[in-house]
Design goal:
Chain lengths: 810, 810
């Protein structure tokens, strides 16, 4: 469908905005009074636009900027009560909202965290003098102070104090500052558990929004979790008392001789770490005592622990939906605010392209003129020159699209001479044929079996000293040829656009690098050779379920990574505390008085004429520096045999140390349960989605098609000429030239983006979403009606006063 | 609402059935021809009923019986192709479908299973001679043969062969028979792994329907499970190759020195049983090698294992819904079949009470006349004398109700004299007051803390030799008084109708028995004393979430028990196999050549003048008899340190033994995942249900109210007088007397039953159910239309031919 309306109407719009940017108001009136009142008083009449042209343009620029800020706040789920309120705040806001500032934030936070590598107890290679690391810390803290002062400038003192996270950060900063100075003055490190709080600087980074969301989700899931945990602990206490009464008469049973031991061992039993062992002394005495343990494990491990997962999963599910709802409504409100700032008094029914373009200049400065126009056209579903509010609601879905001219050529070699075309066409057909694909699968399978057999034949020793095996070269050649054929047959761009091909490519590349390493005897790179079996992963393309699972895996990856990061933050806190208390307490042959002495033994004795070393190795699981602590904490997370580490440390310190380990277990249990719930939820959601949309074709992300005529492009060029935007003009002229070259009157563009969880949710909750919208606008209307009963007609668009805004969207 | 229609119309109905029971047809025609054809040909005309009254009554009796059988088949989800086809089959069906026969089935199966206690390797105390146990087995097998022959008589040879489960059972029976005879002849037990197949006799029992359903569900969940399992194993192989290449050059690392070891240890690592240990040698050499293990565990344990749960959960969810749907439609079809047999030619629009009563006599012989009539009235929602098909569809929901006359008295003591009444009323108010309840909670809490402190003070020794502690007596007295007050205040019936009160009662009773045991020094009962802390469970009544959780727990209990039984059946199979191969291979100091020798050590040496016994105890985890095997298998299920058991056995046999342990791990993993999925599903379902019905009041099961007038009762008595059913008449006359006594014209009855999962599902899938019904009837209509295009009007009621039936409901 081509538009034939005079283009001028899209691009010309010199009216005045219905509403004015609050910064502008601030500039013009400088009395800091109420926004709504001032706005009504000082809005210029429609006629005086010619006289104050430059002022009007300035007005509009300010409106564009504030609208863009609203849209950003909507996207990032920033509350509107942090919206910059005047021109000074705006400057600070803009300063604090760009990637340079974010990077500074992030690097300061990372520097602070990494300092623990160099502070005593430091990693041996990275040890720094106290003066050096304290100075570094002080420097980083000063940078944080600067960041916070910028934030205060933007938020104003009132809002700054009301913003909880920022307040906590300020307090932590204060404490850290004092401690850093104390360290610098005393020239010696004292017990600084507060270092564990450094994480908050990382969590507060703009880039760590996902971590903040995870933490919020974890805290929201806590109440039901704690309830069930209490049930769990309650049964544990009952069984501890029971076990004490039943088994303490047996003097050869070290596990139940006191109530404390009984409790600790049942706690460990809950993690099954000490399982058959804890039962054995009593089982040896009376076989029926196994009933006690079986009942305990059945209730605690197989019932209540699963109940815990169920409760968390249920809460998680519920929270996910509520989160989606509140985010959706928040975005909607943001769009309403932005819309209000972009319509003119002359045409209050929609946004013209000129204003839309102005908005996008601030919202997405990197977008080119063509894309701006395409976005406008994609939004505008009613074919009128103005984008109505209803269409504008789709802003977030459309603005992310990447636009490309639809190719007329099917293959990259269509323009080549006839002979070359035929050759490449042949390769193309070959590469796309089933025979070729299945041949490759067979080769991969044979290769897999080959590697397995080859490895099985080897019996230890250094495998790499010999020559490169011929099988390696043969298979690598086959993969190389396949890669070459595919690249030429499909064209490099199409070839690499598929994730699977990218995977093939990198594995083959690695294999080639491995060959090089073997051929030139570069020992440190031998590990690359070992990655060969990864080729086998290609076989999983064969079955639909695996494709589904692996796709889900890739979709989950960002969230998984953020959950992993959240876990690491907990690790960091525990590592710092662990280092402060337990650094250096465990060493070879340290725990001879404890029941786990064997695991810490290191004996070097001579049998015959050979020196035999008997090692328990557990002394390696220590808190001597932050890297060791992380490994130790990972071992505690895996839970198996964690009591050996606990008992080792306990025997060298006090039995209160157990609290540390038990609390760590419970914390990781929470996080792990959340991770399991998350995977469950994501997977089941995805499966339900697939089931619901079984009839629709393969999922290729969101695709939109729009046609642009030459006239339209010329119209836009005219518009830009007035604002003298040289780069935009040349870019647009290129499109016109292209059209002329192919003799087309119009070009079709394709907008594409990958599908996000939000898109899936939109589809899943389709019906409910309408209800939410209605409920939301009802609520807003009633609120506005209460406030201003006179202006009821356009009420849902009226931005609420700041206080109200923060109430509406929580 | 009271009915005033002449009662005769309900009770009189001497017409002929529209359709005749197939047994009757068989009796009358004896040609075994097609059911539909014969029926159409031989149905007597409407007029000749007076002449053939006794024959007609006989006809009706047969119809009642077949209708009852249809309804039973619908309820038990028996396929209609096993419906008895003629009078001979009916006799066998009736013989094989009563509790006596079921009990025989069950006890034979149990006898066969329990034989493994006495067969070598037997539990020492229960050892029997080969002759004795082989004879017992032969006897049990003969009983099974008898059962099967009855089944064959009922099903007919054709159906018998087509019924898969029965065929498998027959084959197993045959093998067992031969083996039992061989044992008897040779007078020595050979390797009889086939004993593991004895479980099938238990699974086939009528009472083990839940186990069969579980097994079916497990098998249905298998395909996706196996897919993910392959992914898991695939990564394991890749990492095994990698690990072998990376770590085998380190000669002090026993875990990766061959590819087989590498594989086995990564398998064990998947269960985390060997975790920090397997890493330690390489970690000691190069700290960065921990990356290998962390990546492996992250992928396998934290990602794919959770994916496995997600996939199973998803499949489980789906299966549950499909199962509910098919069961619902199956019941509907059964009701249609039954309805067709109960309507008369004169009144084809519904079932009269006379015929309904006849049906119930066969369907629920123990139901009394009053209940039958109330069920009829509850079904009959249209207030006409006949129950239409639409009403009859609610049969299964209504027939389970327990009817009781609505009491006019509020309390049990309402009839007592004034003074007594006031006293009891006071107690009643006291008992129901919040103050009393919270006082009791406080007492329980204090008691709990008291017990904890008291136990903490004790330091080993024999606690029971002293006198009864006074605190015990004080608290028991308080509980006793509470119990007394509650029983008198509420009346014993109301008191015990609450599950919580029942729990209080039994715990208090136990505490009292414990006191007796202490007072009279009955040592074997001391363990009862130890159950006191269970009182503390009462505290969980305080919070809503706990009540919810505990209620869900009780609701889940039957399914959990059946899942447990399913697990036990798997245990049994593995125990038998384990005993055949590994009995007696493990003993103290047996595995000195293996890496786990320490755990099997038993050293008795003298230090100073004391004898010190060092025990590894693991030799106790053996397969020497079936009880030991079960405990060992439970330890393997808990997974921790299972590799010690595996390596011990392996070192004494061949390394193929590992297969047994690995397969067992995978099987329990499947069952455990299903259990987790089940708990998750049940809990989330329940939570969603609660959320959906938040506004409705507390859940008290299904309650229905029906009023019966005196005239109606008299009418029923008349009806029964004609059939000379003496007990029913006396019973009904009692109701009339009761009414006369209180001068009422009618009595209100309450029907009550507890809510089942099916009720919840009905409510949850409300909308979808209508779609299913429509789809179902459409499908049936089209099938019937294809078969008989002429009789389209009443088509959905027409029972399909037997073959078709089995197709419709699968």
């Amino acid at each position: 469908m081509r538009w034939r309306e005079p283009p001028a109407i899209y691009f010309e719009d010199s009216g005045n905005p219905v509403e004015r940017s609050s910064y502008l108001i601030e500039l013009h009136t400088n009395d800091g009074g109420s926004y709504d009142v001032v706005n009504d008083a000082s809005s210029p009449a429609a006629g005086d636009c010619c006289a104050q042209q430059s002022s009007a343009r300035h007005n509009w620029e300010m409106n564009y900027q504030e609208a863009a800020i609203y849209l950003q706040e909507g996207e990032n789920n920033d509350k509107f009560f942090t919206h910059p309120k005047n021109a000074k705040a705006l400057a600070a806001y803009l300063f604090a909202h760009n990637h340079l500032f974010y990077l500074m934030e992030l690097s300061t936070a990372l520097l602070l965290l990494l300092l623990s590598l160099c502070e005593a107890p430091a990693v041996p290679m990275l040890r720094l003098g106290i003066f050096v690391h304290a100075t570094l810390e002080l420097f980083a803290l000063i940078v944080v102070v600067f960041e916070l002062s910028m934030k205060m400038r933007w938020l104003g003192f009132q809002t700054f104090i009301r913003h909880k996270r920022t307040m906590v950060k300020t307090c932590v900063l204060f404490v850290q500052f004092i401690e850093a100075i104390v360290v610098l003055v005393r020239q010696t490190s004292h017990v600084r558990i507060t270092r564990a709080l450094r994480c908050i600087f990382l969590v507060d980074c703009r880039y760590c929004g996902a971590v903040r969301r995870n933490l919020r989700q974890i805290f929201q899931s806590l109440p039901p979790f704690i309830d069930i945990l209490l049930l769990l602990l309650f049964f544990m206490v009952i069984f501890a008392i029971l076990g004490f009464y039943l088994f303490s008469p047996n003097h050869s049973d070290p596990y139940f001789n006191t109530l404390e031991n009984s409790l600790v061992n049942l706690f460990v039993l809950l993690t099954t770490s000490n399982f058959p062992d804890v039962m054995m002394p009593s089982y040896a005495r009376n076989p029926w005592s196994c009933v006690f343990f079986i009942v305990y494990l059945s209730i605690e491990l197989y019932f209540i622990m699963n109940l815990l997962l169920a409760v968390v999963f249920d809460t998680f599910n519920d929270i996910e939906k509520r989160k989606f709802k509140s985010l959706l409504l928040h975005k909607r409100t943001a769009i309403q605010h932005a819309y209000r700032l972009l319509i003119t008094k002359q045409r209050p029914s929609g946004i013209s392209f000129k204003h839309f373009e102005g908005l996008l200049r601030f919202y997405k400065p990197r977008m080119c003129a063509r894309e701006r126009y395409l976005t406008f056209k994609a939004l505008n579903q009613s074919n009128t020159p103005l984008v109505s509010l209803k269409d504008f609601y789709n802003f977030y879905e459309v603005v992310g699209l990447k636009w490309k001219a639809k190719r007329n050529r099917e293959h990259w070699f269509d323009d080549l001479p006839r002979t070359a075309f035929l050759i490449f066409k042949g390769i193309n057909i070959l590469v796309k044929s089933r025979v070729f694909q299945y041949t490759m699968y067979t080769v991969v399978a044979v290769n897999g079996i080959w590697i397995l057999v080859e490895t099985f034949m080897l019996q230890g020793g250094n495998f790499f000293s010999r020559n490169v095996p011929w099988s390696y070269i043969v298979f690598l050649t086959i993969y190389g040829v396949e890669l070459l054929l595919k690249t030429t047959g499909l064209g490099p761009v199409e070839y690499l656009s598929s994730g699977w091909n990218l995977f093939d490519f990198s594995v083959t590349l690695f294999a080639f690098l491995g060959l090089m390493a073997l051929a030139f005897n570069m020992e440190p790179f031998y590990f690359i050779v070992v990655l060969r079996p990864l080729q086998l992963l290609r076989l999983f393309k064969l079955k639909k379920r695996y494709r589904n699972v692996l796709d889900t895996m890739f979709e989950l990856f960002p969230r998984m990574a953020s959950l992993g990061l959240t876990l690491l933050i907990f690790y960091y806190c525990f590592a710092i505390v662990g280092m402060e208390f337990f650094a250096g307490v465990v060493y070879p042959n340290c725990c001879n008085t404890s029941t786990v002495a064997d695991s810490y033994r290191w004996v070097n004795h001579t049998v015959g004429n050979k020196t035999v070393v008997e090692e328990g190795y557990y002394y390696l699981n220590n808190f001597d520096n932050i890297l060791n602590s992380f490994v130790t904490l990972f071992e505690l997370t895996v839970v198996n045999d964690w009591y050996i580490i606990m008992e080792g440390v306990t025997s060298q310190t006090t039995h209160w140390s157990r609290l540390y380990f038990m609390i760590f277990y419970i914390v990781t249990m929470v996080v792990m349960t959340i991770i399991v719930a998350f995977i469950l939820d994501a997977f089941v959601f995805r499966m339900n989605y697939t089931r619901k949309n079984q009839d629709s074709e393969e999922d290729n992300g969101i695709v939109l098609e729009k046609e642009i005529s030459k006239e339209e492009v010329v119209g836009i060029i005219e518009l830009y000429k007035r604002t003298s935007a040289a780069t935009e003009i040349t870019q647009l002229q290129k499109i016109v030239l292209q059209m002329d070259k192919y003799g087309q009157m119009s070009t079709v563009f394709l907008g594409r983006r990958s599908r996000t969880k939000s898109d899936l949710s939109m589809k899943m909750y389709e019906e409910e979403i309408q209800e939410w919208y209605e409920e939301h606008s009802r609520k807003e209307e009633s609120q506005t009606a209460l406030q201003e009963p006179a202006t009821a007609s356009n009420s849902s668009l009226k931005p609420l006063s700041l206080r109200q805004r923060s109430q509406t969207v929580i």
